[in-house]
Amino acid sequence: MEQQAPRIIAVTNQKGGVGKTTTAINLAGGLALAGRETLLIDLDPQGNATTGLGVDRAGVSRSIYDVLVRGSQLRDAVLETLVPGLRVVPSEMDLVGAEIELVTMSERESRLKHALAGLGAIDYVLLDCPPSLGLLTVNALTAASTVLIPLQCEYYAMEGLAHLLRTVSVVKQRLNPALEIEGIVFTMYDARTSLAAQVRQEVQEHLREKTLQTVIPRSVRLTEAPSHGRPIFLHDLRSPGSIAYLELTKEILTHGN
Fold first, then answer.
1. Which residues lie closer than 8 Å to 2 by C-beta, 6 or more apart?
2. Which residues lie across from 86 on neighbouring strands?
3. In Å, how far from its chain's centre is CA 151?
4. Do 183 and 215 form a contact (C-beta atoms < 8 A)?
């Protein structure tokens, strides 16, 4: 029986500090806990998804940099995590220079896509993108099935979202015709502020079919979990943040069926 291709989700927002990596880690953890073999690829030179899953970057022998720039096999860079069924391809500081090095390479936008070909028995691949719209993010969008956009309800949210959606549209037109929007998930949501409700309403009015039902609350426990090297489910299963990411996992699984 032929192995079904994995569902590849790029988690991206060019603005930093919106809960992008938190979403990538906890959605990946949720999918693994739901029995789906999951791989998280850390494309951010900051490496927060790597350390947030308990990997010591100093001890990494191969990273996504080696795969994209040096042509290493993706499987040689895969590491196990504390969560059964969840693996990670780590980032390292050399990835900072990858944007420049990729410019002169052949098929520079498709190197990740080619690396993911023939991946094997994986159900979901999550790509944690850097907070920019450079070549690393373009590689993610070229390889992805869908794009998940974490969005913090703040003053400039719509402006940044419009820019990102234009980029997705260009990549879809030129590099990846199958690319679709998985959805926009509201993160770090503070129901006590009128601005949060106002921005959420505005996004829903403009992009109703693209907004997800799940809302991720602002949570101290969510910010604590990465320092312990694990998803929120292994840190505090009953916390509001944990419950929210379980709901997001269910919603994403429903989309995949």
1. none
2. 38
3. 13
4. no
pTM to 2 decimal places: 0.95
| CA separation for the pair 253, 246 (Å, rounded) | 11
Domain boundaries, the chain: 7-256
Q: Find the distance separating the first CA and the last CA of the chain, reported in whole Å.
A: 19
In angstroms, the CA 91 to CA 41 distance is: 8
Q: φ, ψ for residue 255 (rounded to 5)? A: -65, -35
Report whether 148 contacts 185 (CB < 8 A).
Answer: yes
Distance of CA 230 to the CA centre of its chain: 16
From the list 15, 20, 2, the residue with the least C-alpha distance to 148 is 20
Report the C-alpha gap between 63 and 79 in whole angstroms: 10
Interior/surface letters 39-77, b for 16+ CB within 10 angstroms, e for the rest: bbbbbbbbbbbbbbbbbeeeebebbbbbbbbeebebeeb
pLDDT in tens, 173-187: 999 999 999 999 999
Query: Over the stretch 136-186, which tens digit does the pLDDT of each residue have?
Result: 999 999 999 999 999 988 877 778 888 899 999 999 999 999 999 999 999
**Yes or no: domain 7-256 corresponds to CATH 3.40.50.300:** yes
Cβ 225 vs Cβ 21: under 8 Å: no
122's tokens:
């994986």
pLDDT at 1: 43
- Whole-angstrom CA distances from 200 to 71, 203, 213 are 42, 5, 11
Enter the DSSP assignment of 133.
-
Question: For the residues of 179-246, what is the DSSP string, one character each?
Answer: -EEEEEEEEEE-TT-HHHHHHHHHHHHHSGGGEEEEEEEP-HHHHHGGGGTS-HHHH-TTSHHHHHHH
